[in-house]
Each structure stands twice: as C-alpha cells, then as structure tokens.
Amino acid sequence: MRKLIVGLVAILSLTGMALTGSGESWGFGSGFSEQGSKAASLGHIWLGLLFTLLFPLYLADHLKKNRAWLRRFCWLTGSGLTQLAAGSLLVLTGLGLLLYGQAAWEALREAHEWLTWPMAGAMTLHFLSPKTWKKSP
C-alpha cells in the first residue's frame, strides 16, 4: 500500500501544480486545453478522494507496525509526524475545496497548494532517513 500512497501523492502533486499553474516554471502546467483542464481537475478530485480513503488506513497499519519509533524523537519520527499533519490538512482543505468550489476562501486554496511542499519534503526525508533502531540499555 505504501507504493500506492506515494504514487497518489506524486500524481496529485503534479496534477495540482498543473491545474494551478504553479508548475509552469518547471515546464508543465501550461498548454492545457479546456477539456484537458477539466479532465485533469476531475482526475485530481477522484484521486484525492481515493487518497482520503486510503491515507487513514495506511496510517493505522504503519503506526501499528512501527510503534517503537514513536518512543523517541528522530528524523524518521519527525518526518512521519510532518507527513501526518500535512496529509491530514491536505485532506481537510481538499474536502473544503470540493464542497465549496469557487466559493471557497482564497486562504483555503493557498493552504491546500502550500501543504503539498511539506508533504513532499517530509516523504523524501522519511524515505532517506536511516531505518535502524537500537534499543537503549
């Protein structure tokens, strides 16, 4: 399930950047036709709903499996907690945008866009952090 979650975050990040135009400086985000933009928007919504369903399930399983890491603070724990906070806030802001659409507050849209970066950074740091755990005597 980890690969599915990582893949969803990657696709949601790319489609979100393309839809908002924040990816134009990276070479994508421009050139969408009206139909392409609608298809990307619909795909982003459906994949976001799938993420909303899978994220808590993966989180519960992952915490149960790696409970020992929560006993001490390290880069791995910190990046995991950052992912938890960013992912939860992305879900909440995304649901707000889905429910209220264009009537949503600008701050809600900006928060949803901004939260993509801590989520991606924390996932990268979490992946690169050493996974060896030594019990203290």
Which features characterize this protein?
elongated; 137 residues; single chain; mainly alpha
What report would you give on this structure?
- The protein is an all-alpha fold and 137 residues long.
- 72% of the residues lie in helices and 0% in strands.
- It is built from 5 helices and no strands.
- Helix 3 (75-100) packs antiparallel against helix 4 (106-114).
- The termini are far apart.
- The relative contact order is 0.12.
Euclidean distance between termini CA atoms: 34 Å
Q: List unreliable stretches of 5+ residues.
A: none
Q: Identify the overall geometry.
A: elongated
Q: How much β-strand is present in the residues?
A: under 5%
Report helical residue fraction. over 70%
Helix-strand string = HHHHH
How large is the count of helical segments?
A: 5
Alpha carbon gyration radius? 17 Å
Category from helices, strands and their pairing: mainly alpha
Would you kindly provide a brief summary of this structure?
The chain has 137 residues and is mainly alpha-helical. The chain has helices spanning 2-20, 34-65, 75-100, 106-114, 116-128. Helix 2 packs across helix 3 (75-100).
Secondary-structure map:
Layout: H1 2-20, H2 34-65, H3 75-100, H4 106-114, H5 116-128
Helix pairs in contact: 1-2, 1-5, 2-3, 3-4, 3-5
